[in-house]
Amino acid sequence: MAVFNRVEFDNHEQVVFCSDQESGLKAIIAVHSTKLGPAVGGCRLWDYVSDEDAVYDVLRLSKGMTYKNAVARLPFGGGKSVIIGNAKEIKSEALFRAFGRKLEGLGGAYYSAEDVNITCADVAIMNKETNYVLGLEGKSGNPSPFTALGTFLGIKAAYQHQHGHQDLAGVKVAVQGLGAVAYSLCKYLYEAGASLYVTDINQASIDRVVNDFNATAVGIDEIYDLDVDVYSPCALGATVNDNTIARLKATIIAGCANNQLAESRHGELLRQKGILYAPDYVINAGGIINVYYETAPGGYSAQASTKHVEGIFGTLSEIFARSVTEQKSTHLIADELAQEIIANGL
Ligand code: NAD
């Protein structure tokens, strides 16, 4: 299987293929960079169609973590791991313990955490074999409120950039997905006086936000056609695509979902249309920032974490300003900023 000549390969420091016959573990750990600190990024359990797909995912996601951690100004490099298999069939104590031993074998070059199909409980099993895991229950706690705070401040930074002030009173925001992060985000927006238009595939989640924050419920697909100021994707990836860009009336896209742009070229398309895009990995870094404070000298402090998350406002403001000066899309400016921080240090 080709690795070194793939387009996703970006001089990753290590790509480790792991197996354990007894538990059935098949995993790949990619350490993209340890330039700023140990590589940190979650572990994903997925039933990949082929090993090539798993390699593609782990190479791409680990590089993404290097950039995310750098722009969040964390002393972390970037890494990611994937366990290959069907989550409903392969999960076991033996599997996660075996994976924990693989992490231990890397000697701290990489710290793992939760990601798709991996829960806090699974990470706790890994922790029986290694201390190279983060995001355990009872440590930094639920990251979602911190991600929500960063996203709220990101919306404010975008509004400030476009309108010269941050007063969200009367501003119309369409929120797609009303899960753990978006519920807290809606609370912040409601308290700031914004009008909320919301959708979810789960009726109970809609009812809660309609009742608690006087939101207006809209259809799953209708969310793209609303006459609103801000579109806030908080559910799925790839919702910013040729179809939706043609429909959106919002002039700001700022939400917590990962991988919002279907393709990189959509970032430039947004710039040309005058839609300000808050790059996903910058605006949604509140959760990883909070996890960092588990390892901070002096131990976890919610106050220190909150202060750090508040820095997302300034980082996004800088990215928006540079996008204007350099006439480049915000997501490319974010990547440039990451590369500068990696090259020059925090
Ligand atoms: P969650 O699972 O709690 O919420 C997702 C919500 O989206 C659910 O309520 C679900 O019903 C809804 N949804 C799913 N498909 C939908 C659709 N087609 N249309 C509308 N709604 C739909 O997840 P979360 O933790 O709130 O995270 C939301 C997003 O933010 C995810 O993309 C996640 O990867 C990203 N993110 C989360 C964090 C965090 O701290 N939790 C950090 C960074 C990024």
From TrEMBL:
One Pfam family linked to the record: ELFV_dehydrog
Keyword Oxidoreductase appears in the UniProt entry: yes
Binding site residues for NAD(+): G177, L178, G179, A180, V181, A182
SMART domains with a match to the protein in the record: ELFV_dehydrog
Gene3D superfamilies according to UniProt: Leucine Dehydrogenase, chain A, domain 1, NAD(P)-binding Rossmann-like Domain
Glutamate/phenylalanine/leucine/valine/L-tryptophan dehydrogenase C-terminal domain boundaries: 141-345
Listed InterPro entries: Aminoacid_DH-like_N_sf (IPR046346), Glu/Leu/Phe/Val/Trp_DH (IPR006095), Glu/Leu/Phe/Val/Trp_DH_C (IPR006096), Glu/Leu/Phe/Val/Trp_DH_dimer (IPR006097), Glu/Phe/Leu/Val/Trp_DH_bac/arc (IPR016211), NAD(P)-bd_dom_sf (IPR036291)
Active site: K80
A molecular function GO annotation: nucleotide binding
CDD domains: NAD_bind_Leu_Phe_Val_DH (cd01075)
One biological process term in Gene Ontology: amino acid metabolic process
Keyword terms: NAD, Nucleotide-binding, Oxidoreductase
Coiled coil: none
Family according to the record: Belongs to the Glu/Leu/Phe/Val dehydrogenases family.
Protein purpose: Catalyzes the reversible oxidative deamination of glutamate to alpha-ketoglutarate and ammonia.
The protein's name: Leucine dehydrogenase
Organism (species): Pseudoalteromonas tunicata D2
